[in-house]
Design goal:
about 475 residues; mainly alpha; two-stranded antiparallel sheet; 2 strands; about 65% helix; globular
């Protein structure tokens, strides 16, 4: 048992209360010191570093608003839609809570996508932060699951048919697909059983996993230290330190960055509030018009599309046609030929490459395009986990990479946005071709990264971070 710290009887009431709590709950004060007041972060953070704290803010908003929605929501196929209408029309401030939750879902993906892009351009996934990145990608995967399970709950037309389409995709998996789809639905069609199990996952299971992953993400980040726009470690063995052993290029997270982040929070809340009060549906992107119509299993909407944050991956699914599979076969063959001709491989290595290419082509032709569409859609997320080992660049930050690297990143962003837009639109021949090009570029960007990321003339990285007071 730790000794109690004494305090002067003449101390203020606040100091006495602080000492009383510190004596009885020192673990909390130690955590505050380790992760806030004595956690030194690089002093050159820019606006890209707002999005991590904003993601945490939106998580809190979603949990709090979700608790109030559950008080009135009925997870019953016969009552779900009317209970949402009851929340919107009869529950005091219910419309505000519901719009905060629906807008919060989209806001969550906006800030998470921007947060991940920051990590991409500044190399925040590089050694020693691989585990931080893996935890972050797992959070992203859980967010997609959470959004998918919650998408069905309003029991509107788009919720019902969107869930029907997405669940049926799992049936395309060879051998186990039909049984897996049946397990997810809990019935042979999307029904009351599906609604109940989606509700339990959305409200209980996934949020608990998310909270654990967020804690692991933050703890692992603070163990290895934050990255910065220069990609220079401020806590490395050769980094300069002051007389107290603190990094010269770092400042305490609190009060400096806790106050700094309030600027981002203020701007975010203004935009968030403007959408809630003036355009909660945002032209049908945040809340689709068909979702204001009760689910009808006998009336299929003319165009079924998932909500916007899934559409880049949905475009990849739709873009995978028989022609696309043939193109992938050709690319696989060309890659194998290039590896054999240009690569400095022993005879055995060349044989392995040729055998792998033949097996890959046979697999591509064995299974249908729908199956490979599901593979590409899932692979587009899973490939992110391997990014720390795909990037072979000698520098972390994009600031010190060749200019044409920035062009590649820019094209990547453009194609990702285009894929997202095409996923919302009805299928078309031109759209399919563009989506196929975007899909090939997306996977080529990552799969060829071990090659292109090391090419070009790199700028010298400074020994200390560059910082200008502002």
């Amino acid at each position: 048992m730790a000794e109690f710290k004494e305090i002067s009887p003449n101390a203020s009431a606040g100091a006495k209360l602080n000492n009383w709590l510190n004596n009885r709950f020192p673990t909390a004060f130690d955590a505050y010191r380790v992760h806030m007041s004595e956690y030194y972060a690089p002093k050159n953070f820019n606006f890209w570093y707002f999005f991590g704290s904003l993601a945490l803010l939106v998580l809190v908003i979603q949990i709090v608003t979700g608790i109030f929605l559950v008080m009135h929501y009925k997870p019953d196929a016969a009552l779900a839609f009317s209970s949402v209408e009851y929340i919107m029309r009869d529950v005091p401030w219910g419309w505000l809570i519901r719009y905060m939750h629906s807008t919060g879902a989209s806001a969550f993906f906006v800030v998470v996508y921007l947060h991940m892009f920051k990590s991409l351009i500044y190399g925040s996934y590089r050694k020693p932060r691989e585990l931080v990145w893996i935890f972050g990608c797992t959070i992203f995967l859980m967010l997609m699951a959470e959004a998918f399970f919650g998408y069905l709950l309003p029991w509107g037309q788009m919720s019902y048919w969107g869930a029907q389409v997405i669940v049926n995709l799992f049936a395309a998996i060879p051998f186990v697909g039909p049984d897996l789809a049946l397990l997810i639905r809990g019935d042979y069609v999307v029904s009351d059983a599906t609604l109940n199990r989606f509700f339990s996952f959305h409200v209980i299971a996934i949020p608990l996993v998310l909270l654990g992953l967020v804690a692991a993400h933050l703890l692992s980040l603070h163990d290895v230290g934050s990255n910065n726009p220069d990609g220079v470690d401020i806590k490395g063995p050769n980094a300069p330190r002051d007389a107290n052993g603190h990094p010269v290029d770092g400042i305490p997270f609190h009060p400096y960055y806790s106050v700094h982040d309030m600027v981002g929070v203020g701007v975010f809340l203004m935009a968030f509030s403007a959408i809630i009060f003036f355009a909660p549906e945002l032209g049908g992107y945040f809340l689709e018009y068909n979702n204001f119509i009760p689910a009808d299993q006998f009336k299929t909407p003319p165009h079924i599309a998932p909500v916007w944050y899934f559409t880049p991956f949905y475009s990849m699914l739709r873009a995978t046609t028989d022609v696309m599979v043939d193109v992938l076969c050709v690319l696989t063959a060309l890659a194998a030929i290039a590896a054999v001709v240009k690569g400095r491989l022993p005879t055995i290595g060349k044989g392995v490459v040729i055998a792998a290419a033949i097996i890959g082509i046979l697999m591509l032709k064995t299974f249908d395009a729908k199956f490979w569409g599901v593979v590409l859609m899932g692979g587009a997320v899973i490939i992110l986990f391997f990014l720390p080992w795909l990037d072979a660049s000698p520098v972390r930050s994009i600031r010190y990479r060749p200019g044409w690297h920035k062009v590649l990143y820019g094209i990547f962003v453009v194609f990702f946005l285009v894929l997202g837009y095409l996923g919302i639109q009805p299928p078309s021949d031109v759209g399919t071709v563009i989506a196929q090009i975007g899909t090939v570029y997306y996977f080529g960007f990552f799969l060829l990264m071990p090659l292109w990321s090391r090419l070009g003339r790199f700028k010298p990285v400074p020994e200390r971070i560059t910082f200008a007071a502002h």
